[in-house]
Design a protein that fits this description.
Layout lengths: L7 E4 H9 L5 E4 L4 E4 L2 E7 L5 E4 L2 E4 L4 E7 L2 E5 L9 H5 L5 E5 L8 H11 L3 E5 L11 H11 L3 E2 L11
Parallel strand pairs: 1-2, 8-9, 9-10, 10-11
Antiparallel strand pairs: 3-4, 4-7, 5-6, 7-8
């Protein structure tokens, strides 16, 4: 775009790599940076997990993982990505979150108990769990998580099925 906004934002190294693969419009940024896109912004936050792609020579690290605080349509949404619980989520919560999308699968991400702790740091109005029940190692009881969220925090929990959407 000619207005200084980006088509898409990603970690700087990843944006450079996909650009070298012929993808146009990727805009690199790093933690703490905010990228404008038509209608909103995304602010890069830490996300603690691995980040790589498979090559013929084995896994290749392709930059640092990131979460995003997205401001769009009058709402502020935090997408945590595949992350563990970390104390600086309290600072992310100071962004005034309407929605937090948090992993609960465990093993590769935080599990339900740590996600409850994250919700207490983040103070969102609505929580949507993600990155669970995609394969046997990540099996979680979404209904039990919803009950825990709504009994232990002030947030409302929305469970979505694959392909399902919700207007907030």
């Amino acid at each position: 775009p000619t207005d200084g906004s980006a088509d898409s934002g990603s970690a700087a190294e990843l944006a450079g790599w996909v650009g070298s693969q012929g993808v146009s419009g990727a805009h690199g940024a790093n933690h703490g940076g905010t990228v404008a896109f038509p209608g909103g912004t995304t602010k890069f936050t830490p996300a603690w997990h691995t980040s790589s792609y498979d090559s013929e020579a084995g896994p290749v690290a392709i930059g640092i993982p990131a979460g995003h605080v997205i401001r769009f349509g009058g709402k502020t949404t935090y997408f945590a990505g595949d992350t563990c619980l970390f104390g600086d989520m309290a600072l992310i919560g100071e962004e005034g979150l309407d929605i937090a999308i948090l992993p609960i699968g465990d093993n590769y991400t935080m599990g339900p108990k740590d996600a409850i702790r994250a919700i207490k740091f983040l103070s969102p109005l609505v929580v949507i769990p993600c990155h669970y029940n995609t394969f046997p190692l990540l099996q979680q009881d979404g209904a039990a998580f919803k009950r825990a969220v709504e009994s232990e925090t002030t947030a409302r929990c929305l469970l979505l099925n694959p392909g399902e959407s919700v207007d907030l």
